[in-house]
Amino acid sequence: MFLFPEPTPATSTVNEPSSNSNKRYTITVQTGSVASAGTDANVFLSLYGDKNKIIRYQLQKSKNNSDPFERGHKDEFEFDNIDIGQLKTITIEHDGSSITSGWYLDFIDVTYNNNTVNFPIDRWLAIDEGDKRISLELEPNTKPTSKIAPAVENDKEEKRSSISPMDEKTKIEYSSEKADYDDFFDNDEDTNAENATEYEITVKTADKRSAGTDANVYISLFGDKDKLERRQLKEAIDRKLNLFESGATDRFQVFAVDFGKLKRIRIEHDGRGIGSGWYIDSIEVRYVARNETYKFPVDRWLDSGEGDKKISLDLEPDKKPGQLKDENNTDQEEGNTEQKRDTTDE
């Protein structure tokens, strides 16, 4: 497994249907003008509406730039796809697949049905900046609320490397930021709230060669009443030092708001370390007070050098990623359809 694989021809993860009910979507992406803001990573967009959703569409061919997502550039993408209804949220992400993968996003506009919806961003998607996220869920006209540290800019106006050597000053500043963000995830206000609800997260790593990871792992929980976004799984109940080892089962205790019935989760890692690729067998989330357990079979890699190269994955209870419904089928439970994804491991 390699953190940065050899470049391969990019392909869309979405099969675009040819139905006459399709809508034309225009996506405008403004990359920031700060030093080294551009990215060479593969970029994906998901659109969630009140009727349907489009999952992980690759923004690949810019209408106005041959090399998209360069510093200060505005890129426009157009595609036809299913009618999602009223746009509620989007997810923008990249796969961290290049040395210069860190990306500073200014904003995204989504235009369809003669209506433009704006998503202000003004932050890094980078494993070595701020809260180290490379996947971000956004609501219209609302900036992300996560703590974001200012970028450490070099004197040279060259593209930033996520694995480049750092001088002593940079090392000191980075260490300070890391402590701040560890505190941010540990001291979430939900944890100390009087009405905090206890959850138990069980993560089973597959028993196969090189299945384990040393990367930082995060989980998000989405219910019908509330959500818990990007809680780092870093201290197991048994307090063992090495987490997510091949064949191991790790259990974590999480206190958060009562988010009601669990609809989906997101599991992700930040790609840190040479052996960051991770093969997950399954995940369970137990609502302790009600003794309700939600099971999420996984059985696949989260690895920028394997399969579809994803390191962030949305999961629904009792469904393997490859069992998610095609957009032409009706989702009986949620009234939604989902784009078919290729999760075949190479």
From TrEMBL:
<feature type="compositionally biased region" description="Basic and acidic residues">
    <location>
        <begin position="337"/>
        <end position="346"/>
    </location>
</feature>
<dbReference type="InterPro" id="IPR036392">
    <property type="entry name" value="PLAT/LH2_dom_sf"/>
</dbReference>
<feature type="region of interest" description="Disordered">
    <location>
        <begin position="304"/>
        <end position="346"/>
    </location>
</feature>
<feature type="compositionally biased region" description="Polar residues">
    <location>
        <begin position="9"/>
        <end position="21"/>
    </location>
</feature>
<feature type="compositionally biased region" description="Basic and acidic residues">
    <location>
        <begin position="304"/>
        <end position="328"/>
    </location>
</feature>
<dbReference type="InterPro" id="IPR001024">
    <property type="entry name" value="PLAT/LH2_dom"/>
</dbReference>
<protein>
    <recommendedName>
        <fullName>PLAT domain-containing protein</fullName>
    </recommendedName>
</protein>
<feature type="region of interest" description="Disordered">
    <location>
        <begin position="1"/>
        <end position="21"/>
    </location>
</feature>
<dbReference type="Pfam" id="PF01477">
    <property type="entry name" value="PLAT"/>
</dbReference>
<dbReference type="InterPro" id="IPR052970">
    <property type="entry name" value="Inner_ear_hair_cell_LOXHD"/>
</dbReference>
<feature type="domain" description="PLAT">
    <location>
        <begin position="197"/>
        <end position="316"/>
    </location>
</feature>
<feature type="domain" description="PLAT">
    <location>
        <begin position="23"/>
        <end position="139"/>
    </location>
</feature>
